[in-house]
Amino acid sequence: MVFARAKLAVEGTTKAMPETPPNRIPLAQIVNPRSIAVIGASDDAGKFGGRVIHYLIRHGFPGMLLPINPVRATIRGLPAWPSVAAAPGPIDVAVLAVPAAALLREVEACAAAGVGACVVITGKLADAGEAGAALESEVTAVARAAGMRLVGPNCLGLFNVTDAAMLSSSLALEVERVKPGGIGMVSQSGALMGALVSLGHRHGAGFSRCVSVGNQADLELCDFLEFLIEDPATRVITLYVEGLKEPARFAPLLRRARTAGKPVLCVKAGRSEAGAQAARSHTASLAGSHAAFAALCRDAGAVLLDDPAVMVLAADVLDRLGGLPRAGMGVAVVASSGGSTVTTTDMLAGFGLRTATMSDATRAEMARWMPPSHVHLPLDTGSFHDNTSEEALRGCLRAFMADPDIGAVLVPMTTQPAMAKRAAMLPPLAREGDRPLLYVMMAGEVGDAARDAMRAADFPWFDHVAQALAVLRALEAEAAGRDRATLAPPARPAGLALAEGLPSGALTEAEAKRLAAGYGIPVTRESFAATEAEAAAAAEAIGFPVVLKGVSRAVVHKSDLGLVKLGLGDTGAVRAAHAALRAAPLPLDGVLVQEMACGEAELILGARHEPGLGAFVLVGTGGVLVEVLRDVQLAPAPLRPADARAMLRRLALWPVLEGVRGRPALDVEAVIDALVRLSWLATDLGERLVEMDLNPILLRAAGEGCIAVDARATLR
Ligand code: ADP
Ligand code: MG
Description:
With 716 residues, the protein is α/β, with parallel strands linked by helices. Strand 24 (601-610) and strand 25 (614-621) form a beta hairpin. Helix 14 packs parallel to helix 15 (419-432) and helix 19 (532-542) crosses helix 20. Bound molecules: adenosine-5'-diphosphate and magnesium ion. Magnesium ion binds at residues 695, 710. Residues 513-549 form the ATP-grasp domain. GO terms for molecular function: ATP binding; ligase activity; metal ion binding. Keywords: ATP-binding, Ligase, Nucleotide-binding, Tricarboxylic acid cycle.
């Protein structure tokens, strides 16, 4: 018994709680059950239980179907059973769409009858107040004690399209057939999942398994994510996340998916909540939990999106056409009118994409079909020489599909003669190459014949240029994330020393700088002075000019209160500044005398610990206006130097760091080094770190380094 428990714990199928019995069936069998009992089954498809059995039959469930109904002998022509106990076993899965008041009794009956897992559609539990939450815990405890798993409650069930086990009451199943394909989905909203599967259906997308996890009382999003990673039918994974039950599992699973060659696309609810909380530091207000989640996804090579529709359409392109050959390639727009050519190209830049540069070979091919003035991208097919347009289109597209800088072809089609015929030419041409072609039918109903042609060819299509561009941007992110899983782990720099004896709570500037200096981050030379005489002596020792700052643990932004006196050139100025600080209307512990540093740019470096997600670092345009400019980038710690460089390159400030308008290139290497060191400090402090800011760090010209002139930290 001891051995069996230890084995279970190793396999991760259960937490090593002594009383937990082994699971009755593995997760794969819940998704693909041999037998399903529908509790509350009815002939009335207007009722939840009626709809579930209706859909199971309509979509051709091949296993044993057991309608449970205390008063009916048959339901939909199948023998019905008065209870799960009376039905022939073994029952892999029971679907429960009963009222909340009956739920506990039914779950107990399932547990007693040896049911493997319950899919609980019943809502109004933890999602509806304290009494519901108590009932949910009770139901969960009954299931756990029996080794019976739960999906939900408050979910819409699951679609196993691959095996025709459509175990759901979702109206997305009001179609003849859901097309099998490679898109897997886990969603915390059943209704959104239904809408997305239905949207995908309209566009010809194919699905493998879609699971609505509801309140995640037992099985949760990460369990099904893990399942989809291992699932041979799933090629692309889509996730709708509201909150993670065990956040620490998430990033490692994203990495595993990438290692398995499966792109993960994700929409996370709650972006707007970020930064809402009152914050003690800049880092806290700029790096809320949504920003941390986004950074985690990027780091693990997953694609985070805002728009669930774009998630499904992008997943479909990845599934049916494949991704971009690599990140950073350009786009070839092929349009049939001047208007669509120009507007599509204008929109391209707004999505962070660029028009491709053609190779000489591609140019030569284009020159065969059009006047020299038109041999460029975007291609306007209206400029082809007369009567050669089909051949010309073929020639150009084949050349594009082979061009080393063209990552994707975008074809926005406006109204024109023979739209459907033109559209039908595209799929076979696109399939000759190894890069996606995105077809947009910009017209309304008159474009339906062209859409049908695409459907018939099993080829994706879009209704709006903006949607196709959003998908291209997602594909770019996917390509950029593809090789993240293969990178070597970050290496720890030598000589890092954690400052000792620091208090918990808010640190003073001097204490926070001691912490930074221990990790090799350059900080100002400075000393604390309790009196005017001490301040004058400290200034002499440091060398003029100096800076004086009032020191108080209670103050967050010193300059707001006039507590920063810059550029003091002599002892007289120091004494005057000291007097002015002492006149401030709040008690000071003393003053800090520090060297006056100079630099060409002010950056902020920050770190924080996000409960459940770990340590993060931030870099951005610094100084007193950080919250106004919000030009920051976040990444999970620790960092590789290449990660730090990539963060800097994403800043709006980046061109300034490279040197613009005759200004010198700045010491980017020094910031990278400081950021990497800060990321190790954050990693080593772990949960002890609440947050830390180095703002600003003054950055000098290349080779001259950087220096933190202010620091702030809060420790637990
Ligand atoms: P606050 O608490 O208001 O952030 P800081 O110590 O950051 O106070 O000082 C405000 C500004 O003064 C900084 O953004 C920086 O521009 C400038 N500053 C502060 N200390 C120094 C210094 N030692 N050398 C040069 N400039 C400094
Ligand atoms: Mg500051």
